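name: query_chain
kind: protein
chains: 1
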Amino acid sequence: MRREFLLLADTYKADKHEAIGMIASEKLDGNRVFWDGGVSRGDDTVNVPWASVTNPKTGEPKTKVKPKATGLWSRYGNPIQAPDWFLDKLPPEPLDGELYAGRGNFQLTQTIVRRDDPNAGDWEKIRFVAFGAPTVGTVFQSGLIKNANFLREIDADECLDYIWRKSSADRIIDEPRTYSEELDVLSDLHSYYGSDVFTIVDTWVVRDMEDDLMTPLRTVTAEDGEGLMLRDADSVWFPKRRPFLLKVKPRHDAEATIVGFYAGRKGKTGQFLGKLGGLVCVWHGDPTAPCGLLKAPVEFEIGTGLTHEDREVHADDVESLAAVPGERVDSCVPLKFAIGDRVTFSYMGVTNDLCPREPAFLRVRERASWGDV
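structure:
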């Protein structure tokens, strides 16, 4: 089986998915993690059977592996170096959750949790917010795990044997739980272990589209939140991307001006070498969005949303673009774009630097030379 290390969400589409009856919660803008209950805490990372320590392409150890496990694992199976006082406040049960520093603090969270030597003062800004309590039997299924740029294999028996040896037998639970059952477990754990470090996500049932989905979505995003999550109450946690878990994130439309281009690379789904990779644009902000108009314009790149036809360039430019994949090349002449064109794009909020997040090209709004289109 090809699998992920953790359960991943699909994207909610109103014309495809039924939200009524699903359980909603806020989508946290933090760092996704799995807490193994502390069974691996203090062990050498190389001894933990699900740890990402070997490059399967070469069979050699990865060049950089954090030496000690803490019980906290990233979505790729890498140990997160948290301070002992933080780990001491987490329950002795496996949990799916997020390291979270509050709305609008994604980059702050990443800076803190990716350090090799955690700074205890910084970690005081972080909470572990649990939104799932899957059993170890559902988490540690055998398979090839997608790990960014390569695959690695884990074996269920090896993982469960390790957990058995490192913990009491009564913590080995193989029978899967529904999401409703997971929430009951979380509620019990929070009643006993809840603290300034460990908390659980608030949930509610979507019974009315306006009151329970659209209104909370607008409220969350207006206060710098990222969006909502939906999950089927009867679904069972599974280590792949599944449509019973959906992310609901509003996209805004805005306009920007093309000031340059960059050369394409060989992509996963097609050959962009020798073609237009994307647009370099200047943006002044969005008066209809929480960011408003910016005090100073920002420059960013748009590559997503361009079709193969959009990426075509004049024949004389193909060779020169192929020689500099990914680099800025303002001298090339795309067939469909020109410097000075205004384009409409969609985006998902802004970064701390006020650049649009996940920008995607929609259409040309105004040509530099011949007016509206």
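note: The longest strand covers residues 252-263.
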